[in-house]
């Protein structure tokens, strides 16, 4: 959803989703871009889904999708209501 009203309400804020097959270079691209994008975060569903044992069934993947969506929503809400993040070294 873009347009004059939406863009001015969000300023220059954007949500970028990077998807692709294993080994396509998604993580490499994000690691290269992240330092040049202020007020940004890298959220990796594979990292969020690291559990042992990993059931690899429909219930697990449904839970994983809900958790990733909730995390993205929380970050998006924070970014769209703040002008900057506090200075923190990670």
What are its keywords?
90 residues; mainly alpha; 4 helices; disordered N terminus
| Total discrete domains | 1
Largest sheet: none
Extended strand count: 0
The percent range for strand residues is: under 5%
* N/C terminus separation: 32 Å
Instruction: Supply Rg.
Output: 16 Å
Order of helices and strands: HHHH
* Poorly predicted parts: 1-7
Counting H and I runs of at least 4 residues, what is the number of helices? 4
Indicate the percent of residues in helices: 40-55%
> What is the residue-mean pLDDT, rounded to a whole number?
80
Overall spatial form: globular
Structural class: mainly alpha
Any overview of this molecule?
The protein has 90 residues and is an all-alpha fold. It has one domain. Helices cover 48% and strands 0% of the residues. It contains four helices and no strands. The chain has helices at residues 4-10, 26-33, 45-48, 58-81. The radius of gyration is 16 Å and the shape is globular. The termini are far apart. The model is unreliable at 1-7 (pLDDT under 50).
Furnish the topology, listing elements before pairings.
Elements lengths: L3 H7 L15 H8 L11 H4 L9 H24 L9
Q: In short, what is this structure?
A:
The protein is mainly α. 48% of the residues lie in helices and 0% in strands.
